[in-house]
Every structure is written in structure tokens, then in C-alpha cells.
């Protein structure tokens, strides 16, 4: 006997879609400022400004991938061959985002260390002006993406990049002011290293979260043993086995389990109670539960994996 619960997560699954307009606004704003920063970095010779432009490039690329994933998800969600839609695309985009940002951060740190031996002079006036523009752009993008970062790992990736870039712009402004006041040219590579050191741990955490979803590990906030014990406690359930819990995409936890029924248990009541427990106590909205009579051993065939 089996039963499936196919509940669509309108409020969570479409979280990133709700912020689509904000993503487009942030994309256009940061793309424009990225070009300005890149040109200014080469003209002024500032590594800190170049690192900020490189980071902003990954912001633009990351948001672009997020938008592409959202578009593909919306267009192909009804394909009968894709029984879970294309929700995983946003996770892949977040992982690619983390890899790209890690590469930029490592490059900046390595280049900055090389410059400590002989720091070149930089033009602080244009460097300061462009850094202030970058700060304003990042403040606007930060405000646009903040609410969506709580609901979608993809939007969270873009949000984290903008947060890092915002602090990077502050660092570039500080370096420009310090160099202008003291001629301490080491401030430029020092700020570049600081930006890289700030970016890397946050990027790796994002990558780790994406990988957990891709390998279908149970969500960190949820204990599988607790789910098992709660299902066993459902009236009419004698035993629970073949329990799996994983994350489809941000905020979409999925479970499947086999429930062995106690003698005299009513299937409908057991399934309703089990689904309610999963939904109310663990926020698992999509559960596929198979019931098995306790008097029929071997009904659940063993699987090798």
C-alpha cells in the first residue's frame, strides 16, 4: 500500500521568483558600476579597486546565473519528464557562484602579496570617486536583495557577494584616503588582502550549503532520528524504516518512508497523522509514505543501495 503527498510550496518554492524584478534591478546597477570600476582600476593602478571590480563582476555573473536559473525553472516546471521541475538549477548557480568568487578572492590575495615588496603608486582622486560610486551602488543592491536572501539560496549567494563588495568599497575608500593623507602605498594591497580574507570564508559556507543539497544530505537543522522517532509515535505505526530526508532547493525539504502498521490500524488515519506531524513539527510539506501491514513480512523488498 502506498500514498504520496504532492504539495506545491507556493510561498517558499517561488521565493526567488518573487524577487525577480529586484534581481534584474541589482544586475543592471552592478553591471554598469563594474565597467566603471574596471576602467578606473587600470587607469589609477589600484589593486584594491581592481579587486572590488573583480568581485563586482562575480556579483553580476552570479545574479545573471540566478536569473537564468529562475527563467529555466519557470519555463520548464511543467515538463512531465522533470518530476521535481528544475529547482536544483538555483543550487547549481549558487555553487558556481561560490567557485567563481573563491577564484577571484584567491587571485587578489596572491597579487596583493606580490605587491607588498614594491607597491606601485596609485591615483587616489579617481580611485576615491569611483569607490564612492561603487559603495552607493552596492548599498542599493544590498537593499534590493536583502529580503530574498532569507528565502532562496540563489538570492542568498548574490546577497553575500553584494555584502562583501559593499565592505570592499568601504575598504577602497579608506585606502584612498589613507594614501592621500600619508603616501602609505601599502594600504592598497593591504585592503585587497582584507577583502579577500573577508570573502573566502563566506563563499566557502555558501558552497558547502549548495553541496549538501546536491549530495542529498539531510538538512543541517533537522535530525533524521527525531523524524524517525516522531513517525514511530504516530498512533497505528508499529515500525518505521527506509526513511530518507533531503532538500530539493532552498526551504523545500522532502521525505519518504515506509510505515509498518500495527494490527487494526486504519491506513487513512495513519497517513493523515504522519503527514500532519511532518508538516507541523519539521516543516516537511512533501512526503511520500508507504504503508505496510505488520502481518506481511517481506512485503518491502530489500535494496542493495
UniProtKB/TrEMBL annotation:
This chain belongs to which protein, by name?
A: Cation transporter
UniProt cross-references to Pfam families, sorted A to Z: Cation_efflux, ZT_dimer
The residues covered by the Cation efflux protein transmembrane domain are 23-215
Annotated keywords: Ion transport, Membrane, Transmembrane, Transmembrane helix, Transport
Task: Say yes or no: keyword Ion transport present.
Answer: yes
The protein's topology relative to the membrane is:
Multi-pass membrane protein
Q: What is the lineage of its organism?
A: Bacteria, Bacillati, Actinomycetota, Actinomycetes, Micromonosporales
Highest taxon listed in the record's lineage: Bacteria
Q: What is its main location?
A: membrane
> What region holds the Cation efflux protein cytoplasmic domain?
220-293
**Which NCBIfam families does the record associate with it?**
CDF
Q: Provide the family line.
A: Belongs to the cation diffusion facilitator (CDF) transporter (TC 2.A.4) family. SLC30A subfamily.
> Do the record's keywords include Transport?
yes
Transmembrane residues, as ranges? 23-42, 54-73, 85-107, 127-145, 157-179, 185-204
Give its localization. Answer: Membrane
Native species: Micromonospora thermarum
Amino acid at each position: 500500500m502506498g500514498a504520496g503527498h504532492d504539495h506545491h510550496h507556493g510561498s517558499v518554492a517561488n521565493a526567488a521568483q518573487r524577487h525577480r524584478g529586484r534581481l534584474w534591478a541589482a544586475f543592471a546597477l552592478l553591471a554598469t558600476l563594474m565597467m566603471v570600476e574596471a576602467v578606473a582600476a587600470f587607469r589609477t593602478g589600484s589593486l584594491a579597486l581592481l579587486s572590488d571590480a573583480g568581485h563586482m563582476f562575480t556579483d553580476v555573473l552570479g545574479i545573471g546565473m540566478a536569473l537564468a536559473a529562475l527563467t529555466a525553472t519557470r519555463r520548464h516546471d511543467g515538463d512531465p519528464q522533470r518530476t521535481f521541475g528544475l529547482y536544483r538549477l538555483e543550487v547549481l548557480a549558487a555553487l558556481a557562484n561560490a567557485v567563481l568568487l573563491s577564484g577571484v578572492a584567491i587571485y587578489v590575495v596572491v597579487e596583493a602579496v606580490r605587491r607588498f615588496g614594491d607597491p606601485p603608486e596609485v591615483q587616489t582622486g579617481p580611485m576615491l570617486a569611483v569607490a564612492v560610486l561603487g559603495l552607493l551602488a552596492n548599498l542599493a543592491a544590498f537593499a534590493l536583495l536583502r529580503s530574498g536572501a532569507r528565502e532562496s539560496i540563489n538570492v542568498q549567494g548574490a546577497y553575500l557577494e553584494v555584502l562583501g563588495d559593499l565592505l570592499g568599497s568601504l575598504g577602497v575608500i579608506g585606502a584612498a584616503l589613507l594614501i592621500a593623507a600619508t603616501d602609505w602605498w601599502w594600504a592598497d594591497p593591504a585592503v585587497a588582502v582584507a577583502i579577500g580574507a573577508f570573502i573566502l570564508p563566506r563563499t566557502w559556507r555558501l558552497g558547502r550549503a549548495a553541496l549538501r543539497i546536491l549530495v542529498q544530505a539531510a538538512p543541517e537543522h533537522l535530525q533524521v532520528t527525531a523524524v524517525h522517532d516522531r513517525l514511530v509515535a504516530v498512533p497505528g505505526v508499529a515500525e518505521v524504516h527506509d526513511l530518507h530526508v533531503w532538500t530539493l532547493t532552498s526551504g523545500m525539504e522532502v521525505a519518504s518512508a515506509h510505515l509498518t502498521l500495527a494490527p487494526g490500524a486504519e491506513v487513512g488515519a495513519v497517513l493523515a497523522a504522519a503527514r500532519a506531524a511532518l508538516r507541523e513539527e519539521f516543516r516537511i510539506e512533501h512526503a511520500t509514505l508507504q504503508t505496510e501491514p505488520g502481518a506481511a513480512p517481506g512485503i518491502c523488498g530489500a535494496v542493495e543501495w
